[in-house]
Write a structure and sequence with these properties.
It contains four helices and three strands; from the N terminus they run H-H-H-H-E-E-E. It has about 140 residues and is α+β, with helices and mostly antiparallel strands. The chain has one domain. A three-stranded antiparallel sheet has the order 1-2-3.
Length: about 140
């Protein structure tokens, strides 16, 4: 009878320790799930940025190459404004940083030829609740058709 009195509460303590260990495991799984959702959102925004940048360069290929600088690289160019609005509508975290479109002049010594221009498109975004800037940069050569 004496042994039974000294063992009182041991099962309760074991149960509480088991619940504590289980709780830490659940918290770890919830943290992993949150991180997976963040990576999924970043992948979605990155895929949208890839599509938009490649669509813009494709559009440049069909346009007059001599007008690329005025239409696309200029902050007041009509095609740049359309592109900026499209990026801001499709990628929610991009409103703070407008995209950058750089078009080199074909007369520069760095140009691949006198009839082509190097084009670089940069898109920036931030995930909701994150201050880190993510970006996508692509470069292409737009030549004479």
């Amino acid at each position: 009878m004496q042994l039974r009195n000294t063992q009182r509460g041991a099962y309760l303590l074991e149960a509480l320790i088991g619940i504590l260990i289980f709780s830490f495991g659940i918290l770890g799984i919830v943290g992993l799930q949150a991180q997976a959702i963040r990576f999924t959102n970043d992948s979605e925004y990155r895929a949208e940025a890839v599509y938009l940048a490649n669509a813009l360069i494709s559009k440049m290929w069909t346009d007059d190459r001599t007008q690329l600088q005025a239409k696309y690289a200029s902050p007041s160019g009509p095609e740049y404004i359309n592109f900026k609005n499209q990026v801001q509508n499709e990628i929610p975290g991009s409103t703070a940083s407008p995209p950058v479109v750089l078009v080199d002049d074909a007369s520069l010594p760095t140009a691949p030829s006198k009839t082509s221009s190097v084009v670089q498109v940069q898109i920036f975004w931030s995930l909701p609740g994150d201050s880190t800037k993510h970006n996508y940069v692509t470069t292409g050569v737009v030549g004479q058709n």
